[in-house]
Design a protein that fits this description.
By secondary structure, this protein is an alpha/beta fold. It has a single domain, classed as Vaccinia Virus protein VP39 (Rossmann fold, 3-Layer(aba) Sandwich). It is built from seven helices and nine strands. The longest helix is centred in the middle third of the chain and has 14 residues. The radius of gyration is 16 Å and the shape is globular. 44% of the residues are buried.
Length: 231
């Protein structure tokens, strides 16, 4: 998880961590986490309440009763939508404030959503646990942490399970409409093919498209989409 500060059309990201069992009352003091929590503290939703459009486009892959993990789900827009499709969803994030709003959103929509405050660096990627993993704009991670997250997601997918991922390409730095201003955190087709070579890649596409996801992602964006299945 990262705290961020917007300067003009760009965002400065600051890494934060918290214990897996941390709550708003027992988390150790962390100024960066406090700033991120402050971003989530308003009544509005930083990235909106609508699910990510690419995730929605993969609805045909989803079946009621499947186990789904929403990685770095923040205020819960994607986890809540997955739960509305009948999936059993765990939404994880470092921000307890964000996940409080995720639970509120789920309650408003009449769905059950499990949430857990975690440090993604120490998250337990238990093997063969999830039928669906949604990893939507998780580009707070630089290359070393990204490699561990990708390995964890590969491990945690159950056989036949799907990874649904969307992120930014390096060209996003020219748009400045969302995401961290670090080229090394961005994805390329070659990178994703290599990272998920042991999965069956069903869809991999780079494209420039306009997105409007609250204040956090707003405008023309350099995107890359991936759907991969574990054999």
């Amino acid at each position: 998880m990262l705290a961020f500060h917007r300067t003009g059309r760009h965002i400065r990201w600051v890494p934060i961590t918290t214990r897996p069992d941390a709550t708003m009352t027992d988390a150790p003091p962390n100024p960066s986490l406090a700033r991120w929590n402050e971003r989530f503290a308003g009544d509005d939703y930083l990235f909106g309440t609508a699910p990510n459009a690419f995730l929605v486009s993969q609805q045909s892959l989803l079946k009621p009763g499947q186990r789904a993990l929403a990685v770095a789900d923040g205020e819960g827009r994607n986890g809540t939508w997955l739960a509305a499709q009948g999936l059993q969803v765990l939404a994880i994030d470092a921000s307890p404030v964000g996940l409080t709003k995720a639970r509120r959103l789920a309650a408003e929509r009449g769905v059950e959503l499990e949430t857990r405050v975690v440090d993604i660096e120490t998250f337990d990627w238990t093997a063969d646990s999830w039928d669906v993993i949604a990893a939507i704009f998780i580009q707070f991670a630089g290359p070393p942490l990204r490699a561990r997250i990708f390995a964890g997601m590969r491990q945690a997918l159950a056989p036949g399970g799907h990874l649904i991922l969307q992120g930014y390409r390096p060209e996003q730095l020219d748009y400045g409409t969302g995401g961290p201003p670090y080229a090394e955190n961005m994805y390329t087709e070659e990178m994703l093919r290599e990272a998920f070579a042991d999965l069956e890649i069903a869809h991999l596409e780079a494209h420039d498209s306009e997105i409007h996801e609250g204040r956090g992602h707003d405008g023309m964006s350099a995107l890359i989409d991936l759907v991969a299945r574990k054999p």
